[in-house]
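Ticket #4471: structure output looks truncated?

Reporter: J.K.
Steps to reproduce: submitted the chain below (139 residues) through the standard prediction queue, then opened the result file.
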Amino acid sequence: MPHVTNGWNVMQRSTKKIKPEVDYRQFRFKKMNTPEFSHVKLLLFWPFFGLMFMFLERFQPERHYYVVHCALDDLIPFWEWALIPYLLWFVFLIGALIYTFFFDTRAFRRMMHFVIVTYGIAYLHRISDLPGITTGAFR
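Returned output as attached by the reporter:
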């Protein structure tokens, strides 16, 4: 461990710039299947997610909603300021996806696979509740 005589040397070493893992300036659609850019295809999940969410919210009748409630819920007071951390959670998720997309593609892949699997399970459960579908995955 090198001997540091003042705090300036420590600060100089700790302010290294973080460089993106992939040079996206070289990205072309024909390079989408290369190992360098194959994680970009995972972004296609988000338009699919938006369309599925819109479909399930608009076309699932209200009688198929399940109210999840217990007596403890009545004891929790409503506090308007609690909305701020709730909304910041979504900002955090978006920020984590953007950061990992540029600086840690392995973590981005893992996070997107987790999101796709968990959202997929939730969609299968919601789709199995649609009228006319008698054999659902979770019945």
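Triage note (M.O.): checked the attachment and the full token line is present. The mean pLDDT is 79.
Status: closed, working as intended.
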